[in-house]
Amino acid sequence: MTISVKSHVLFRTVALAAGLLGSTVPFLAEAQAAPAAPTAGALLTLADALALARRNNPALQTALNARRTASANVRAATGAFLPSLSTRLGGGYREGRQTFFQGQGFGSTNDQLNTDASASANLNLSMAAVNDRRAMKANQAATESDIEATEQRLRNDVTVQYLAALQQQARAQLQDTLLTTTSAQLQLAQARLQVGSGTQLDVQRAEVTHGQQRVAALNARNQAAIEIVRLYQQIGMPPVLETRLDTTLAPTPTLDLQAVLASARSENPSLDAARTRQESARRSVSTARSAYIPTVALSASLSGFTNRFTNTNALIQQGQAGVLSSQASCIRTEEVRARLNLDNRLAQCQALSFTPADEQAIRDSQGKYPFDFTRNPYDLSIAFSLPIFNGFRREQQIEQASVNQRNAQIEVRNQELRISSDVTAAYLQLNTAQQTVVMQEENVRTARTALELAQERYRVGAISIVDLVQARGDYERAATDRITAVYDVQRAFAALENAVGRPLR
Which of 208, 225, 247, 442 is disulfide-compatible with 20, CB 3.0–4.6 A? Predict the structure, then answer.
């Protein structure tokens, strides 16, 4: 195997890697369904990495949780226009013992069970509730914009790390190819020593160069593995070290700076969030001013009760005693009437008696417990209220809300300036990176020609091993710089998309 053959292997490998890496990354819009977790040796495309990150990244999941809070706030603000309802069901037990007050006994001597139930509705209407709901709706829209901004940052972070891993893998492939070249150079130096056209010093220098290249190749492969670990960290999953990355990349589109700036001003999620929070602050001012407007309060309530004595026989005995007492009183009255020679109605007194029907009525009255309620009178009310003076708290709240509104306006302006600056800087960086790639490709072609010439001259003994090593080093630096330039284009385009706040394809 000759040095010339080895050099052609090197050039073809670098050209292939540069060709695969010379285009930009396709931006994933929204993954319809996240793929399964990758396994060792499986191919992980950028689209798969973004879909997995959207499902697993902790920062994005935290941002998505804010959506639930915002929805709950809107529901609560809407609930202010609905009446609040409350119900109560209670029960109790009272011992059968009289209570004495000023020597008089009150209350039944029979143990008693009781239940009561009530329902009430209240509704408060005010302009503050109207403005609060509008403010909550604006905050909800701002939360959605924040989520979109977080997703865009995540897409940018994963894309940049994916590019870093690809770039390091390309560098590792370059180092492996250069290792093949230094091995061939060592073999040639040993062959020249054997035929007497070389020196032991040339062999030793070739051995040192080959040993250094082995170290460089080992470090490059290790750094490539580290970049894979960092990629999985951005995704939010445990690393799979033997993951293969997709080197098929799409070209960058031609962009107009003014069009990109206009798109950023109208669609950037961070700017949208600032604008919606400005609207929320404006509604908060209206809410504070609504303290000068009367509020209306409506309420309604309904209640009932039932009870039962634990000893029904005692009630029957009380009923019987009451009838007997009435009969005795009637007889005494008729006796008095008879002595006064008045009409006698003693037969009516004899008719007074405690019948089985009376006994059953007492038993039936105790069967109402616990849910056959006796209704109390219902209650309806309406009230209007307007604070006259509350120690200037209304004025303080209005002033604070106005300050917050002005701060929100300033934040919108700050976001507009930041976005304009970031987009312009990223656009200029992208143009510079694209021009750098062209120049670095020319440098690689020149260095490759110089290395081929140096290899042929060393083979015929026209130059020393030092000159050959120098030519190989020049080519290594040129090829490495070209790979860096190619990925600088990808990073600059990703930075431009991140500044705009949306994909540009």
Answer: 247
